[in-house]
User: What shape does this take?
Amino acid sequence: PDRCAMAKRFAFGPFLLDAARGTLTRDGSALALGQRGLRILQALLDATVDAVIVIDARGHIESFNRSGERLFGYSAGELLGRNVSVLMTDTDRNAHDEYMARYLSTGVPHIIGIGREVDARRKDGSRFPVFLSVGQVHGVDPPRFVGLLHDITLRREAMAALRRERDRANMYLEIAQVILLALSTDQRIQLINRKGCDTLERREMDLLGRDWLEVAVPEEQRAAVLAELRELNAEPVGDAPAAERYFEHHVLAADGSRRLIGWRCIAMRNAEGRLIGYFASGEDITDSRRAAEDALIAQQRITQVSRLATMGEMAAGIAHELNQPLAAIANYANAAMRLAATQGIAQIDPEGDVTLALEQISQQAQRAGEIIRRLRALVQNRETRHESANVNELVNEVIGFTQGDARLHEVRIVRELDPSLPIAMLDRIQIQQVVLNLLRNSIEALAERPAAEREIRVTTWHDGNETLRIEVSDRGPGVPADLVDRIFDPFCTTKATGTGLGLAISRSIAEAHRGKLLYRRRSGGGACFVLELPCPSGRTA
Assistant: This one.
């Protein structure tokens, strides 16, 4: 009551307190408080946790409550009558009286009625932050002012701690070497870190709020990604931890390039267990997956090379074994021809059929021996032997070798040979081996077709530049779509009893001639293999 009595009149909300008279006025109606009312009002001031200070027009303190005593370390008796600047820091102390004088002279408020944060000073000189609200006591002369000061030390410390945690979390987000992504329930991007922006080659501001599926997921994979997210929607049972799902999908960069990302994703839920979004970490596995695939391919190639080396050793042994009976056949045929010439066999063979047959036996035995020698040279990586050759004649010879097999399977071989082909420099035996392999493959492929469809077409032509082509096409089943990319790989075959080496060796022969062996599906069904050989323009065959 004594401290209240020192202040003449106070304004609290719509009420005006006249302490000297003991009345409380509202809307012009005075209410007598008496000593009991004053005690209640003082109890109210003392109970508040904020400091309440009343000053006059000169800035002298007229009232100071108990919360102010606890907050500043002064007793009310030490402060009553002193300038309120004693509670201010040097920065505010110098400007306070100027603010007061300017308001009293102009009536324009600068701090009155406007809450703001300032620093205050305790009795021991320590500084602390407060939120200051200043109001004027209306209807009194000279003017008086009431200040409410709320200690915001804890709030500032809490905000600083939150900022530190936020900055630390942002730092973790920025330095993370995985993509960190938060999505809303409708798949819109709520958060994405620097790694995610770098991967997508987009700015964060261009991604936030966008639909993740539309901006980053290839169209053909969106349904699968959405299905994976929906699997997370099921609420966990009891206290079970949040389910985590791993899945992979490509993301699209701004330039249209793709990266394969392995995602670990969980559903985020509020306290009531309601789904509020998704959080995922994504690792770019493009390079590691490619490296793993390359390692697998390399391992397969090593295995294939090992098997080819074994095949080479076997071929060398087989060649040695076959050369002996072939040499014997050639020798016997030559001996028979000499005997026929010396013993007058022409009388019993006037047409010379036997002599012709013996000549063919000798020629084919020598040819078989030459093929074996060239095959042995091929697996031993020896250089090919190029010589001038007429490609049409070479093809006719090969067709002649296969006519018996073709008649046995009721297969027709149709020739379309370009008479203007130039002379080519090639290894006759090796090129004949390629054509022979293609013809035999076509004959076997047609075995199950109707007789009317059993036709092989052999075509040669020159493009007028420096390439000639030999094409072998049939009307068989063709190469299955899943084997087209591997048809020339070693040990890849469509035959139940095939070795898968014929086309691989044929392609190696073509490349040794600086040419190509290509496959394309024949229009109307069937297979078509094209052997392209370099042939400088020059003399025609």
